[in-house]
Input
Amino acid sequence: MATANVNGINLYYEDTGSGDKTILFVHGFPLGRKLWDGQVEALEDGYRIITPDLRGYGGSDAPDDIESYTLELYADDLAALLAELGVDKVVYVGLSMGGYLAFPFLRKHGDKVEALVLADARAEADPPEGVEKRSAQQAQIRADGIGGLMEVLPKALLSQTTWDQKPDVIERAKALMQHPDNGWLGSLQAMKTRPDSTDQLTSIDVPTLVIVGEEDGITPPDAARKMHELIGGSQLVVIPEAGHLSNLEAPEAFNGALAGFLNDL
Ligand code: MLT
Output
């Protein structure tokens, strides 16, 4: 087990591959590091790759104090992990919540980022009805566990195309969502309290790739286009027949876009 003691908890991570550049893959909610298995396999021959489980996920500790979970704290955990591993610079690749937390990571630890990939993410904070929905989901988990949300979330995360044609991807997504209640509760807490980061977009000055699944209903293509327009020199790739989990639903297209971006760095 590879764990690092960061900010008072044990954080699980995998550190594989080798190359001049290091990629930090940051998963979304409620998924864990294995979300990135398809990308690790495709890229580990040319890059060092670090895939952590955020606090609350997989092999990492899942502290009970749910109020303490913030995107800033996740970002601090990642920076402490990189310090522990002696890594100075990374290509930061975040999907969804992993993309949301790129913004505090850049604010607090921007010197560690040499390039950025924002996949199925957005810069805006939750609207009031979104905050209410997350609070209701937290209440549901506290009352009954994650079972009820497991009934509805996979459908929301995946495209209709995946839902109709790719039963193996549906099963894989469901398997990736098995994490302690505290992990779910903590991410809902962190996401619903996150600030708007739109103003930060124009100051991002590292090479940036914005990726979005064409059928993403959670962070739709319009949100990706807005980030692309505001981040100078950024590239935008829209992936057909993919929803919010574009890397899992259309790995060939996702990996192709990512490899092209990395090659150009
Ligand atoms: C994620 O994939 O991280 C979440 O679905 C994003 C969200 O709920 O806003």
The mean pLDDT is 97. Residues 11 and 60 are 5 Å apart (CA to CA). DSSP finds twelve helices and eight strands in the chain.
